[in-house]
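Quick board copy: two proteins, each given as sequence then tokens.
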Amino acid sequence: MKSSTPGDESANPEPAAHPGLSKQAKLGVALLVICALAALFWPRHGKTFKEPGGFPLDLDGRPATLGSRLAPVSLVHFWATWCPPCIDEIPSLQRLARDFQRRDDFSVVMIAVGDEKGKVTKFLGPGWDMVLFDPAWDVAHRYGTDKIPETYLVVRGEVVEKFVGATNWDDPKLRGRLTSLLATPAPRTAAAGPGS
């Protein structure tokens, strides 16, 4: 490279620096971005969770099992007081539960998701102390719920239908379906012999 002295017009000017990154630098940045994203989204198998994990909680904050609350025909309802469609739906669900309350073969299990005990009990009023809580969505996610309200119709331990969004539990067709499920006897198992 020639050095130029002031007033030397014949000297070649230095070429302008090429704006932007070189191909190698671009590849390096892309690789760095990919590594950062992989680190961010890579599954963390070493992550610990609370044992027994994934249980709903009762009003006292103790883990509770769903099995003991399920009748032969049950509705497992995920909802919250901060969810406007849930607020609209709850009165019809409460009427359904009240209308079927004398039946031992039917239950409504309400699970408040990501909600506060005080708000839930105030909203539901007296007589709803059996509500369960799912503060971290563990139970809801296990059922496949990622938005609320959602309700699962569980018949003899098996989910047979999923209601997504607010449901009109006063609907005569829906109530008729529930009544017909309640009237259907449980299937006999192979272990049950004649006369059992």
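And the next:
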Amino acid sequence: MKVGPKDGAASRPPLGHDHRARADSEASHERTPEYEDRKSTSDQLPRKVIVGTVMQPFWGMHPGLENRLRLLTDIVDRLQAQSQKHYGRGLDLTVLPEMAVTGEGAPVGNVMEWSYPLEGPVKETFARKALQHHCYIVVPLYLLEEKPTMSSSNAAVLFGRKGEIAGIYRKVQLVVDSQTDALEHGAIPGKEVPVFSCGFGKLGIQICYDMDFAYGWRELARKGAEIVAWLTQSPETTRPVPRAIEGSYYIISSTWRHNASIFEPTGKVVSQVRWQQSMGDPSGIGNRLLENNTLVQEFDLSYAIVPWSATLKNGELLTRTFGDKVGYRYYEDEDRGVFWSNDPQMTIRQMLRSLSLKEEREELEHARERYHEAGVPESRERENPIEAHEDESSQYGGQRRRTTLYNLTPPPPPVLLGPFGQSVCKTVVSEFSPIHDSEPALIRL
């Protein structure tokens, strides 16, 4: 069991107040025509969210649907109890690992032979559990699609707080079998990357191999996702870092082995539960529920990323001024931190403004403007606005937020990095191919 620290001493809502009691709009798929620059949420009042995730393998012979559903609901109950114990209220979101209902046996065979329909025990079990705990639950399985398609998808079903089906994501980037060229044992790929409007904010979902492809992550950022549930057999911790930074969202991993982690928009791991030697071999766990394999964490979706400054003093200035009405995690090794308000009547942006502090995005935008004036090539990145978009959300107080969209020019010359993002060398002597300016450069080393 692992429970993350509270987002500041004053992070609990006022006495008698449950932010989850706000009217939940039905989860919906939102589409926008073009890529959007991410909007800051620092102008919104605090939105504390508690999420729960788990590290639990599902290899071996399937124990039968009834037994598997019992194990999964035991995980949900355990996470709910941890949330109540450490935060004084229940979960907002529970995330289960990829294929948690289905598992993966050996030999696997055609996916149609081990898929389950949504109607019946799966729907009834998790609708009842979501309603009981008044939380959203992400339930992954190989989903037997309704007739007449007779097909199966690697899917994640989102149950709402009232037990309703709030949405379904079907994995887009299926694994390709290196020997047969089949897509994940005969599954069919999804065609959409939806964002679900939940009571706490906007949720996206990605599944395992989706991590290796930018498309889904950029779609989620474009559509305004604030949290991405990443359900996966693979316990990667390097690739999620640039995804979280680029998308400006929290990533919740729910895995089969090694670790389950929560990444914040700075790319840092907020909290993590790791595999212990006493747990044994992941492939031999069967349907046994592990101990100390769950993770609960609270964070605030109304936040600001603030860079180093002499006056900030690593966040001490805000603590001296606002006491426990402000919370933050500052990283000296990155010269920046994420800050949020614990005052239900004051935004973190108002706090920063009162101290003449700027967010990182504001400083970067100001730098681009100065670069443009000085003729620096990087400034061309944003010099051609193509559309202005205004978005009004009644869910967050009817605030209007304006976003400018831009045509992007080719990037500056490449930097050589290793396969996992590490710097290979500082100086590259190379020979560039004479190709068109709009195409990427090829480097022969």
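Board note added afterward: The mean pLDDT is 83.
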